[in-house]
Design brief:
This protein is an alpha/beta fold. It is about 45% helix and about 15% strand. The termini are far apart.
Length: about 325
């Protein structure tokens, strides 16, 4: 018999989508699975009850009820309770294709790796997210794979199948945003090889409510803190010296995006957190102005924005909203 795979599903106020999610896991052509529904303190009067209801219908579904800890806490708890040799994560409002687990399992077993991952479909616009330039199924060294990772590919933990042993050293950070990115970074730098397929088995359903006009909070600086940590870590690892351009790219890109998002927030309403985010990111761009000029991966648009902000941060705060109004 094939090895047991544990599928961890954090659940928080997503009752209306939960059955579709669970059904997509139950319909896998890989049969030796257990599903752990981690009810993370749901308050919608549906999710908790539905978790219990579903678990009574199937012998391979377990429910864990806990006080709200966020997605990271729910995933960590699921890993603790998991009995499988391998672990996968599915968000409770997403779905997966029926051959996702069987394909990833075959890859980890045949290629003798601890992590295998696939592409993703973003359902709101049918966009397919794949590692750039990777076609078909491949086994990459960690250096080869991190090239794509730092350029923006495969940050989600939901597209991977992990050997349980990787969680002995790596856990999702609590009370932080962007936790998938930093978790996967810690996992990937510890692997000699990583198996990748460009097939988009995971369907991420982007819901209404996450847009650029929502109020910015200082929590978005977790992203900047993470890329700073990654940059410092990579700068101290001589074996990854060939990736310096990619590492600098993700650092510059993060600061440019934060600046633009903060300006958009300030244009809609007075937001002290957005001002703090803008000032913080603008200072980072000024500090690394030389890299803005030379980084080969940065687009012309982002290079121009970054240079403008690094030289004239106050002027950009005024100019950008006016430009948006003229376009409107």
């Amino acid at each position: 018999m094939n090895d047991l795979i544990s599928v961890v599903v954090p659940v928080y106020n997503t009752g209306e989508y939960l059955r579709d999610c669970v059904n997509s896991i139950l319909e896998q052509d890989y049969q030796n699975i257990e599903i752990l529904l981690v009810d993370d303190g749901s308050t919608d009067n549906l999710s908790s009850a539905l978790c219990d209801e579903i678990s009574k219908e199937y012998n391979n579904i377990r429910v864990i009820h806990q006080q709200n800890c966020g997605s990271a806490g729910a995933r960590n708890r699921g890993v603790q309770e998991a009995k499988g040799k391998y672990i996968s994560f599915v968000d409770s409002d997403d779905v997966i294709e029926s051959n996702m687990l069987s394909t990833l399992y075959s890859m980890v077993e045949e290629k003798e790796v601890k992590v295998a991952l696939c592409g993703m479909v973003i359902e709101n616009n049918k966009k397919v997210s794949r590692p750039d330039e990777i076609v078909g199924d491949k086994v990459l060294t960690n250096t080869e794979f991190l090239h794509y990772f730092f350029l923006g590919s495969n940050h989600s933990a939901c597209t991977s199948l992990y050997h349980k042993s990787v969680f002995e050293e790596c856990k999702f950070p609590l009370n932080e945003t962007n936790e998938d990115y930093i978790f996967n970074f810690e996992v990937f730098i510890r692997q000699d090889k990583i198996a990748v397929t460009d097939k988009p088995f995971y369907h991420y359903v982007k819901r209404e409510g996450s847009n650029t006009t929502s109020t910015m909070r200082l929590r978005v600086l977790h992203w900047l803190n993470h890329v700073k940590y990654v940059k410092e870590t990579m700068d101290n690892k001589k074996e990854f010296a060939s990736l310096s351009e990619e590492v600098n790219y993700q650092y510059l890109y993060c600061n440019v995006i934060l600046c633009n998002s903060a300006v958009l927030n300030m244009a809609n309403s007075r937001n002290d957190d957005a001002v703090m985010v803008y000032n913080t990111a603008a200072k980072e761009l000024k500090k690394h102005r030389d890299k803005l000029k030379t980084n080969r991966y940065l687009s012309k648009r982002n290079r121009l924005i970054g240079m403008f902000v690094s030289y004239f941060p106050n002027l950009y705060r005024i100019f950008m909203p006016l430009l948006l109004k003229l376009k409107g």
